[in-house]
Amino acid sequence: MRNICMTVSYDGTAYHGFQVQPGKITVQECLEQGIKILTGEEVKVISSGRTDAGVHSRGQVFNFVTASQIPVERWALALNARLPDDIVVRHARIVPDHFHARRSAKRKTYRYTIRYGKYPDLFKRYMEFHHPTRLDLDEMREGLQHLVGQHDFVSYCSVRNTKKSTVRTIYEARLECDPWDEDLKSTAVHIYLSGSGFLYNMVRIIVGTLLQVGEGKRTSLDMRSILEAKDRASAGPTAMPHGLMLWEVFYPE
Amino acid sequence: MRNICMTVSYDGTAYHGFQVQPGKITVQECLEQGIKILTGEEVKVISSGRTDAGVHSRGQVFNFVTASQIPVERWALALNARLPDDIVVRHARIVPDHFHARRSAKRKTYRYTIRYGKYPDLFKRYMEFHHPTRLDLDEMREGLQHLVGQHDFVSYCSVRNTKKSTVRTIYEARLECDPWDEDLKSTAVHIYLSGSGFLYNMVRIIVGTLLQVGEGKRTSLDMRSILEAKDRASAGPTAMPHGLMLWEVFYPE
What we know:
Chain A is α+β, with helices and mostly antiparallel strands. Chain A has two domains: about 1-95, 2-Layer Sandwich (Alpha-Beta Plaits); about 105-250, 2-Layer Sandwich (Alpha-Beta Plaits), CATH 3.30.70. Helices cover about 20% and strands about 30% of the residues of chain A. The first copy, chain A, contains five helices and ten strands, in the order βαββαβββαβββααβ. Chain A has helices spanning about 25-40, 70-80, 135-145, 200-215, 220-230; strands spanning about 1-10, 45, 55-65, 85-95, 105-115, 130, 150, 165-175, 185-195, 245-250. In chain A, strands 1, 2, 3, 4, 5, 6, 7, 8, 9 and 10 form a ten-stranded mixed β-sheet that branches. In chain A, helix 3 crosses helix 4 (about 200-215). The longest helix of chain A is centred in the N-terminal third of the chain and has 13 residues, at about 25-40. The first copy, chain A, is globular, with a radius of gyration of 19 Å. The interface between A and B is medium-sized, with 21 and 21 residues. Chains A, B: Keywords: Isomerase, tRNA processing. Chains A, B: It is an enzyme of class 5 (isomerase). Chains A, B: InterPro entries: PsdUridine_synth_cat_dom_sf (IPR020103), PsdUridine_synth_TruA (IPR001406), PsdUridine_synth_TruA_a/b_dom (IPR020097), PsdUridine_synth_TruA_C (IPR020095), TruA/RsuA/RluB/E/F_N (IPR020094). Chains A, B: One of its GO terms (molecular function) is tRNA pseudouridine(38-40) synthase activity.
């Protein structure tokens, strides 16, 4: 038996998230079915963590144990031929038996994209949250810095959270802005958050709150006082899922 | 009455092309319905030319005559609110009565995008034709140059063509390559063709033939001998529609 680890990109638009749910189409189900067609085995795919309905992935990581003798360098193309167009395995490697895509993950990066300005980019409408009016990007950048470090993120977490501890560490939080598109009179603003782990809806609640900072409804300092309040009600709304992408997952070598 | 000219982008994936066809959803129909909801008028939209099913547009141009008094600077946002997400009007202006989006057009540019290399970019899968094996881009670039100038393009034209004259002028033909994406082991290759006008399927047949040049099945010089043959059967297949985008339409100022 071999433990195989893969990196997979997907467009989450058509899926009810990553994790298998009875009666709903999920990414995990497609992967497990593809592997079954390829090997005849009923494997269970272990991911680095679920993503919500409509959320995308550039670099989701999963592993599974198989008796198949398919050479590892052929796995990606072989599996892609058995997957829908909106799921693409980008890399496959053999990992030690103890490797577990969720438990072994050391750091995760998410990206949230806001298209800010007059017109949306229609070819990216499934991937960019469109905000037509002015945003104060400097204030948003400042607000993000208050989140860096180890904090109790209970305020920025869905009340449906089931995790015991709501303490997480954010290693890096940055905002990058693409060049202004004169044609669309808008630009894409990317918010990158890297951390030890993320709570349920954490990135989307942070972005929903940060948008209020950008709109001038809150100040950058509020990002910190919301942390201190330890109350979900003190934060802003949960931003739409389609702007969110699981960017990268890091493992110790 | 005012003659209004608009520039419109659309994702052609969901449409049976631009031009109204009974019983099928087209871009023109959506535009005319949007204008009707806005003004109550049954207008006829005149485009710079039809685009086929699945073909996209960055800068399609159309005009229509209206009695509406909506200020021209409000037209784009007002109409966008009444259009589906995959059609976005980017600009509106008042033009002289004699302006006709098709007859007044002086030059058109199309772009065709091939994703060349191992993996497709799944977030652009509706816009890029994926070609997994090697392409000789230099030979393709050379092949394109044989098309520049005034020629009878009947070999590069669908047999369903209804136009009397098949002579057209290509002003510019170029191939641009994006930086190599190490992650996807592929890159996007964009073919831009600018001309006085294009025959039915002309860009797609040129690209389908050029792909054979890139694969080494033909030489760059064949692009010229195909012109001289004046026979559709001498050219290659019609490339898939989804890689094609109407890029820009030029009018005399």
